[in-house]
Amino acid sequence: MASETVESTATTDRRSVRGRLGLDGEALRGWATVAPVILLYLFVAVTPVAFAIYASLFEVPLLNPNWTFTGLSNYVEVLTMNSFWSSLWLGALFMIGSTVVQLLVGLWIALVLNQLDRGQRFLTAVAFTAYLVPTVIVVLVALFMFDVEVGVLHIAGSTLGLWGERTFALGDQTWAMPLVVLVGSWKFSIFVTIFTLAQLRAIPDRFYEAAKICGASRWEMFRDITLPRITGVLLIAVLLRAVFMFNKFDIIWMLTEGGPAGATTTLPILAYRTAFLHNDYGVANAMAVVMFVFLAIGAYCYFRAFDPTAEVNT
Amino acid sequence: MTVHIDNMTRVFDSPNADRIVAVDELSLTIEDGEFLTLVGPSGCGKTTTLRCVAGLDTPTAGTIRVDDRDVTELPPQQRDVALLFQDIALYPHMSVRKNMEYGLKIAGVPEDERREHVAEAAALLQIGDQLDKMPASLSGGQQQRVALGRSLVRDPSVFLFDEPMSDLDAKLKRELRPVVQRITDEIGCPVLYVTHDQEEAMTMSDRIAIMDDGELQQAGSPKNVYSEPTNDFVGEFIGQPAMEFFDARVESANGTAAVSLGEHTVSLPATAAELEGYVDGPVRVGVRPQQIGIGDPAEGIEAEHVLDEPLGDETHSIFETEFGDVTVVTHADFDGDAETDYGLVLDESATQLFDPDSGVRIH
Amino acid sequence: MSTPTETETPSETETEGGTQLSYETRDRLYHLALYGSAALFSAVILFPIYWMIQNAFTDSQTVITEFSWLPSPETVTLDNFGVLAAGAVPRYVINTIVVTAGTIAVVVGISLVAGYGMARFRFRYKESFAQFLLLGYMFSPIVLGLPLYLIWSEIGLLNAQIGLVIALSSISMPFAVWLMWKYIQTIPESMEESAWIAGASRWRTFWDVVVPQTKPAIVACALFAFAIAWNDFTFAQILLPSQESTTFAPGIMRLIDQGGYTSWGDIMAVSLLMTVPPLLFAYFLQEYLLKGFEVRTR
């Protein structure tokens, strides 16, 4: 706040002196420029959340315009549902598994990229490519590669004895979840790389030179120079990844639709199923509200870890 | 055209601190064809004044008129002024030619006429061969010429300069000064030139207005403000090296006045009557370093030599005295010696007296 | 920074003489690990892409009957790309293009104006507004999509591509507006002032002076919106339930779901086509992209 006002003091209009109410011509024009954004947000973010809270208090059969007010019973239903708790557990598993894999792989790629003397451009391009391939294409290729007839990964896996020759791995109780995590991580690990790489490149060479002169080994340089410098950024990346993964719907749904037998039914999948397959829109909205609460907690942590006003001041 | 600034005040609201009075009841007139320089230390309100004249800022109180037209509330688009910015502000995505003709294009001047105007201005500024280049490929001095050209082609009714040379090196400044003067003569409109550089002000202006802390201190010709400063601020700000000041007392005997600086006494051309109210009281004595001579300790203020700054044609020598460090302009061959005792001799006819509290010049 | 390393040094030199490997060996091992990792990552990332390309150009019958690591000249064909000429797939692709183009237009237009306003006007609660915007990072399509389904169907936006464009634009806003805001702040205000003094109106100045200089940010925002829209499955699945209006991702998944569609050769061909645009854009506009990321991660 402070820096903003100081910076523009020299150019302030007297209109702002006149209009003590804060709604002088300049402020009006300012608000007018951001009004479309506010409208969009109201329309697509604020209203739906409010609506979800509202709808969660009713029994809403999707194809029937008659809503029945049921108070908090949808929430009671959600909280007493076995499938809710199991999908919360599976969601947590998916979230933690994905975040850990993506963090490790993403960080590893970033470190390798940062250290390479040759082929750096090539590997950067390759890594970015994974991020740029649309999710649906990742899924289609994965489905093809796990195809029981000609899937290359299916054949590889069954040859190694991981699964049976006629077993569709993505439809297998044991393998579905780990494979969904891995397929997702193929695309999203690079997110961590991108976040970290900028920070890694910002570490001045002289730090390493100074350490080398002191006789530090590579591991010591990593532990004492690199790691402390990227911890902050890693924290943010982990937080964002965890939040995104907790809410991940597309890749899971496209790969397994939550199956087999609910083995990959995370909370978003359960909510979607409840609304559109079980026709229980009220309960689905109650789940959406629960997810929103998780999001809000994530958002709160995000703002604590990553003070946006600090960004304003830069 | 004549620009009249009447009782102009500009107050900024500051959320953290008190309100800031950037310009305080400034009244100033810029005659047609006059080159007026507004000079002062940074934060003195000179740029705010210029921005109010340009219409980029609006005074909190007071009026600005061009001839008889009140322009105080007019937006910059309707003022027909030209402004040269400190950061030059050429549009980086337009060629030099596009930059120069932009104002004409806005005014709806047809293409061939625009080309003609641009060619004329470019010839005058000796940038005719640069017209198809992009601004980023030009040197700072050339960029400033383009910016001048951009203003020139519009034939404005008031020409404003906001420290246009402060980012240029000394050599370029000297090179550009005559160019600026030629251009402004060519247009022949009132010119308001803002700078913190007193040398620029002295060399270019018809008249100089010195501001400090939002208030106008003095306005006059360069010679006038140099030789007859109205107060110690102007005395110190104008002239290089800055005027030296000594705390002293006025003594009178038989109707003639003298000031004593510590042990040393300087007799003044003024009579005691002229110094009414200050006799037997404190005053500040101001002397320009050019008017201080070096002599024996017996002849003047006792001084110890600190260092010399040889400039080639003259030397600035710094001495330590009981009044603090004093700069003296000495001969080019002067070579001070820390072991020797010197005396600083003030040229009695060139001393100026200032009120020790208000700083206003007494005599 | 070097203080902790200095304190470690003595213990290091102590052990080095005895049990540890020589410097050369360790260095060789390190480089082996480094380039080994690089090769591993390249292989893991590139193989699926290679596999997609290879099979896209392989006769569709061969794809589902024979397995081969390398393409063989007899089975190479362009026939699979015929999938774009008939059936439901071309409609999905066109719908995706329409939605993506719409999202880019809306995001760039709105964020440009908003970013300009935030950079140039002083108004109260501006910073709070910016923080509120960042909350958008936290929006998830599924949480918003569920309620939006009924809202959109109430106001007739369900199955309308404009409805999807609105939803996708909103979730692109935090990035786009912040980027524009920060970017426009780096353009000196004196350039605009100079144009005003030359007689140009605020609006004209915006077009003549600000917009041309904002190009890198515009490109970065457009790419970002492109990625959001091109990648989207969830919103389209929920908000475009009809087969006519829906985009590629839900469309093709529904085709596969209905069971009738397992011509992997065709699917790989269209997958390849859908992958090419983002790669091309990213390649040709990488400078702008990097600038965008710089502003964002700063």
UniProtKB/TrEMBL annotation, chain A:
Domain of life: Archaea
SUPFAM superfamilies per record: MetI-like
A single GO cellular-component term on record: plasma membrane
Source species taxonomy: Archaea, Methanobacteriati, Methanobacteriota, Stenosarchaea group, Halobacteria
Family designation: Belongs to the binding-protein-dependent transport system permease family.
Topology class, membrane: Multi-pass membrane protein
Domain ABC transmembrane type-1: 88-302
Predominant subcellular localization, coarse grouping: membrane
GO biological process terms, semicolon-separated: transmembrane transport
Protein name, per record: Binding-protein-dependent transporters inner membrane component
Keywords of the record: Cell membrane, Membrane, Transmembrane, Transmembrane helix, Transport
Cell compartments where the protein resides: Cell membrane
Keyword Mitochondrion: no
Transmembrane parts of this sequence: 38-57, 88-113, 125-146, 175-198, 227-246, 283-303
TrEMBL record, chain B:
SUPFAM superfamilies tied to this protein: MOP-like, P-loop containing nucleoside triphosphate hydrolases
Record-annotated ABC transporter domain positions: 3-238
EC number: 7.5.2.13
Domain of life: Archaea
Catalytic activity: D-xylose(out) + ATP + H2O = D-xylose(in) + ADP + phosphate + H(+); L-arabinose(out) + ATP + H2O = L-arabinose(in) + ADP + phosphate + H(+)
Keyword ATP-binding in record: yes
Stored PANTHER family: MALTODEXTRIN IMPORT ATP-BINDING PROTEIN MSMX, TREHALOSE IMPORT ATP-BINDING PROTEIN SUGC
Summary of the function given for this chain in its UniProt record: Part of the ABC transporter complex XacGHIJK involved in the uptake of xylose and arabinose. Responsible for energy coupling to the transport system.
Protein name in the entry: ABC-type D-xylose/L-arabinose transporter
UniProtKB/TrEMBL annotation, chain C:
Transmembrane segments: 32-53, 92-117, 129-152, 158-181, 217-240, 267-290
Chain intervals for the UniProt region annotation (Disordered): 1-20
Keyword Secreted part of the UniProt annotation: no
GO biological process assignments: transmembrane transport
Domain ABC transmembrane type-1: residue ranges: 93-285
GO cellular component: plasma membrane
Family: Belongs to the binding-protein-dependent transport system permease family.
Protein name, as recorded: Binding-protein-dependent transporters inner membrane component
UniProt source species: Natrialba asiatica (strain ATCC 700177 / DSM 12278 / JCM 9576 / FERM P-10747 / NBRC 102637 / 172P1)
Lineage of the organism: Archaea, Methanobacteriati, Methanobacteriota, Stenosarchaea group, Halobacteria
